[in-house]
Write a structure and sequence with these properties.
heterotetramer; A: alpha+beta; five-stranded mixed β-sheet; B: alpha+beta; four-stranded mixed β-sheet; four-stranded antiparallel β-sheet; elongated
Chain lengths: ~80, ~150, ~150, ~80
């Protein structure tokens, strides 16, 4: 049984590569960002083309891959930034 | 007022938000769309964003600037959608009683914006091909973008 | 194009002189008229100049900036005559391929302009009295101005 | 006999103090800026109210008080600057 559910959003080149802008991930209670990325890369077709350590945000803020996830979090994979 | 907009950035309106008689110096930065270093003819450049995070991150950056330069007043805009070559994609205005603070606050915001704003840029070439660009002007390759792997 | 003008400085026109697709960063500085620190009500502020030297000195300063930052394009204006509070008395725009150069060139020109331009400022107060101000906001006294004696 | 003639311009507060915007000064051939200032302060009514070492320009450029003058030069006395 999954202990937490995370909404994972994909943008720009990453959304293009996997052909999706959003994926729901079910994770164990002690999951960190790195676990979610690993699951995403296995679960989604062409997910393995995504980098293993992309830039990530949780709930609209940049975080490290060691950040703990909570049920209902919004995780985002951010391609190399080009703002400004 | 949201930081993101789809129309041309109006510099006069941005300046009017920060200029005041008690703030004698105003610094403005404009980032202008330019060609990538190795391009063929670019017909247009599209900016996209993670919109909710763009607003949140810009708010944090401007708050940080206000904390560091309390007398400064700072505002900013990022344009999204198609931006023609030579037009501004980002504008930051900072006014302060002392011009050094205005320059420093403006510079702080653009440097942090470049590092932190969730915005992406795609060039559409004359032959219909598209190229994702990172902030250094490099091409973002297939699934293993430079700096992301 | 002369640096001095008597009408409001048009920021958009100034930016248009330097912004171009190959110069991705543009820094603008506006110096805005503000009250002196110890004033009663100021009804207007008059800027006057040594006009021929103002043009010569501004030309030298901009040339120095171009020599130090060869890829930068710099332009500037100084307003003379009556300038209402809150309006710009000076504007400097610098565009360059790299934003650091744009900021540095813009900052160079304002710092040198403050030190070198032959421009004077007189406040006209509500009671008709006038006060000459130096660049630090101090009053310029009778025949022995601060820094001049 | 004067060996060189210099046009001396006064601005802003200095013009106000002496009530003139221009003074012609006749100086010896080896005169420097400091000599011109000294003469001006003696020659013009209320000239002694002007500072002994004002900011000066010759031919539209800032110079030191040791600068040699030449016939036809335009000397200017600049009150404390307030541009920008």
């Amino acid at each position: 049984m999954a202990a937490l559910r995370v909404r994972c959003r994909l943008f720009a080149r990453y959304a293009e590569v996997v052909g999706r802008e959003e994926v729901v991930l079910d994770l164990p209670a002690d999951a960190v960002v790195a676990d979610a990325i690993a699951l995403l890369r296995r679960q989604v077709p062409r997910g393995d083309v995504l980098p293993e350590r992309p830039l990530v945000a949780v709930n609209l803020a940049h975080v490290l891959h060691t950040e703990r996830l909570r049920d209902g979090d919004e995780l985002a994979l951010l391609p190399p930034l080009a703002g400004g | 007022m949201p930081f993101a907009l789809r129309d041309p950035i109006r510099v006069d309106a941005l300046l009017a938000e920060v200029v005041a008689p008690e703030r004698g110096g105003t610094a403005l930065f404009l980032g202008t769309v330019r060609r990538g270093p190795d391009d063929g003819p670019v017909v247009r450049i599209e900016y996209s964003a993670y919109p909710e995070m763009l607003e949140a991150e810009f708010t944090r950056i401007v708050s940080e600037a206000h904390a560091r330069w309390p007398e400064a007043r700072v505002t900013a805009r990022h344009r999204l959608g198609d931006v023609p070559l030579g037009e501004a994609s980002i504008a930051i205005a900072a006014a302060a009683p002392h011009r050094g603070d205005a320059f420093d606050a403006c510079r702080y915001v653009i440097e942090e914006a470049k590092q932190r704003l969730p915005v992406w840029k795609r060039e559409v070439l004359a032959d219909g091909a598209t190229v994702w660009r990172d902030n250094a002007g490099g091409r973002v390759m297939g699934g293993v973008p430079p700096g992301g792997g």
